[in-house]
Write a structure and sequence with these properties.
Elements: H1 2-29, H2 45-66, H3 71-90, H4 92-100, E1 110-112, H5 122-128, E2 133-136, H6 143-160, E3 166-171, H7 185-198, H8 202-210, E4 214-219, H9 226-236, E5 240-245, E6 254-257, H10 262-271, H11 285-290, H12 294-307, H13 316-325, H14 331-342, E7 348-350, H15 367-397, H16 399-411, H17 413-416, H18 432-459, H19 465-483, H20 490-507, H21 509-539, H22 542-546, H23 556-567, H24 578-587, H25 591-594, H26 602-614, H27 626-635, E8 639-642, E9 645-648, H28 651-659, H29 662-670
Parallel strand pairs: 2-5, 2-6, 3-4, 4-5
Antiparallel strand pairs: 1-6, 7-9, 8-9
Helix pairs in contact: 1-2, 3-6, 4-12, 12-13, 14-28, 14-29, 15-16, 15-18, 15-21, 15-23, 16-23, 16-24, 18-21, 19-20, 19-21, 20-21, 20-24, 21-24, 21-26
């Protein structure tokens, strides 16, 4: 209530000052009339404005320094608790409890490195080590579960003690996605994660981190690439309270997760009676040797429950995956899709309608879809776009402007082909259907571009003659600056701008403007298309490029001007104005600027276009029924869902699927 009153007072002060007092004070100072309702208080307007500003500054500083310590803290604790409980309930251990009807998992014990005594009270160890440690254990040992349970304990402490820090669990698996190596990058990433996961604002997070009011519990260090591991450890050192890792970290005390004992395993099996009564008899010495972690125990129990056999292999993960997929009709596409998702190297698969960055998929694709994209779809789409724009231009502006467009667009083909010459198919991949679809997509896009260009060209029709004349000259100058390479484009830009300045003495500016609209629209579209294709190509691995033979079919390059000439049919019967043709050429000067990666907003549009270009490439690995696939994998306990996002139930499952042979796995599921 106190914070709400403070924020209300701040908003009211700002509103009264800006809307009422300040305009009245300015009016009086400039000789204007004072509103009558101020009466004798008119001479106190400026002092009142000053007082109001000082009070508002004081309230803003109060909110900045103390406003996050009450309601924000309580809300953050509630969100942390809710999300950590969701993570625990979605874990493979929790799903196993539901599947088997077991009440609890075996209680894990930890031991401080160098000590002999083990304990099940991790919070006590955390206090004894000064609230800083690394939780060490192999994959599947239960480190993440212990970390989340510790977080819930610290949440209760923070609720009862206003001075206790707020615990947050962050997953380093996404840290490398930001990629830069700036010294403040980890801080920025941490603030983003706290805001995204727990709703902690950047300002509140900054203050709390500076005052050590947040305890950062870090999971997923093993997901960071080895080349970045040392850098990541040095970055997280000033913030981390607890880190989960498979090995020790320098300057942090190590707490080792103890393996499960035989007694704990037998007690667990007995708690599920009678569903796992036959499991104990099936445990061979080889199985006992590997049955030392909660992951192994859960996978073994679920596999035995499904198979109902007396003999079990020692590959717990592989056996589990086979049994979970064995009842699936047509398991082949599912296995291939899960392998594809696992190889992305990310635990977060995104919501059903949002998958990871599509260009990250390209290194996982075979050669054929890449060849179909770059050899068939891209040139055909470009040719279709040129044909459609030429037809629209000829139909509305005449033959000469359309011919100018075809010649200029054909010469700009080099922007699209800024690629190695990878235009020969591996095997007998003809791709006629792909080329046809690409051509039709280009025609549709070209019609839209042509309509937009004609609309842009007609905007200047109501302008006065002088305004239109000056606009054409100035626009031509700036378009030429972006078109001409080198360090001294100014003289050439002046010469290019002089061409319409002289031509418009005879033609007038309006016909040039009409052509510039079409040229500018087509130039922007062509430049963005070229930039998108270049971005996609740079993602392709060199090994994939080497598998594509050099050379190209002879008809690829001539197809663009030939199909563009077909579009000239729209201009038959009306030659049009040569001033309009000049405008088309001037508008096309924007193409190199639009194709650059660093010019806003073309860079953002090229990113969107690149995602659209790569979208069809995933169809060979992921079906259109992507949502059904994710639901199926979740039902089979291979995927889990938290906060609307899918992820593999355990990193061991993901790694196994990423390295498996889909054909061999399919045979195993059929057996």
């Amino acid at each position: 209530m106190t914070r709400a009153a403070r924020l209300t007072a701040l908003a009211a002060l700002c509103l009264v000052t800006v809307v009422l007092l300040l305009p009245a004070a300015i009016s009086v100072s400039t000789g204007g009339a004072l509103p009558g309702f101020f009466g004798e208080f008119g001479r106190w307007l400026w002092p009142a404005v000053g007082v109001m500003v000082l009070v508002a500054i004081g309230l803003a500083l109060w909110e900045r320094l103390r406003g996050h310590e009450t309601s924000n803290r309580s809300a953050a604790l509630s969100r942390v608790e809710a999300r950590v409980k969701a993570l625990l309930s979605a874990s493979l251990a929790a799903q196993t409890q539901i599947k088997l009807g077991v009440l609890r998992q075996p209680k894990l014990a930890v031991r401080v490195d160098g000590e002999e005594i083990s304990t099940t009270d991790l919070a006590d160890v955390y206090d004894r080590l000064g609230h800083s440690m690394v939780l060490v254990g192999p994959v599947g040992s239960g480190r993440s579960t212990l970390l989340r349970e510790l977080c819930l304990t610290l949440v209760e402490r923070a609720r009862n003690d206003p001075e206790a820090p707020i615990p947050v669990v962050v997953d380093l698996a996404t840290w490398r996605a930001y990629g830069t190596r700036k010294p403040t990058e980890f801080t920025a990433w941490l603030l983003r994660e706290m805001n995204r996961r727990y709703g902690i604002s950047r300002s509140a997070g900054t203050i709390w981190l500076r005052r050590e009011r947040i305890a950062v519990l870090i999971d997923g260090l093993d997901e960071v690439p080895r080349v970045d591991r040392a850098h990541c450890e040095s970055e997280l050192a000033p913030f981390a309270s607890v880190v989960c890792s498979t090995g020790p970290i320098e300057n942090l005390p190590s707490v080792c997760v103890e393996p499960l004992s035989r007694g704990q395993v037998l007690e667990y099996i007995a708690s599920v009676s009678p569903r796992l009564d036959s499991l104990e008899a099936a445990l061979t010495p080889e199985i006992w040797e590997r049955l030392d972690s909660p992951l192994a125990l859960n996978l073994l129990a679920l596999t035995h429950l499904d198979k109902q056999v007396d003999t079990i292999g020692t590959d717990f993960v592989g056996s589990f995956v086979v049994t979970r997929l064995s009842g699936q009709r047509g398991a082949g596409p599912t296995i291939r899709a899960l392998k594809f998702l696992a190889r992305l190297g990310r635990p977060d698969l995104g919501a059903p309608v949002h998958m990871p960055h599509r260009r990250a998929w390209l290194p996982l694709l075979p050669t054929r879809p890449l060849w179909l994209l770059f050899v068939r779809a891209v040139p055909a789409a470009y040719a279709g776009g040129v044909c459609a724009v030429a037809f629209m231009t000829g139909l509305r502006l005449g033959l000469w402007p359309a011919l100018t467009f075809v010649v200029a667009a054909s010469s700009l083909l080099v922007l699209v082909n800024k690629l190695p010459h990878v235009f020969h198919p591996p095997g007998r991949a003809h791709g006629i259907i792909t080329a046809t679809l690409g051509f039709l997509a280009g025609v549709f896009g070209g019609l839209l571009v042509g309509l937009v260009g004609l609309w842009l060209g007609g905007i200047g029709t109501p302008w006065p003659y002088v305004v239109a004349y000056v606009f054409v000259v100035v626009a031509s100058f700036f378009l030429a600056l972006g078109f001409i390479p080198g360090e001294a484009p100014m003289p050439w830009a002046v010469l290019i701008a002089a061409a319409p300045a002289i031509a418009m003495i005879w033609t007038g500016p309006y016909v040039v403007l009409a052509g510039m609209g079409v040229g500018f629209s087509a130039g922007v579209a062509g430049g963005i298309f070229a930039a998108a294709v270049g971005r996609v190509w740079r993602t392709v691995l060199p090994a994939q490029q080497e598998r594509m033979r050099l050379g190209r079919p002879w008809w690829i390059q001539p197809a663009v001007p030939v199909l563009g000439a077909v579009g000239l049919l729209g201009g038959i019967g009306a030659l049009g104005s040569w001033g309009t043709a000049l405008g088309v050429a001037l508008g096309l000067l924007v193409t190199p600027t639009a194709s650059r990666d660093y010019v806003w907003p073309f860079d953002a549009l090229a990113e969107v276009a690149a995602e659209g270009v790569t979208r069809p490439l995933s169809l060979g690995e992921l079906s259109f029924r992507r949502k059904a696939l994710l639901h199926l994998a979740q039902d089979r306990l291979l995927l889990t869902r938290v906060d609307g996002e899918y992820r593999f139930a355990h990193v061991a499952l993901r790694d196994h699927l990423a390295s498996c042979d889909p054909t061999a796995l399919l045979r195993a599921t059929r057996r």
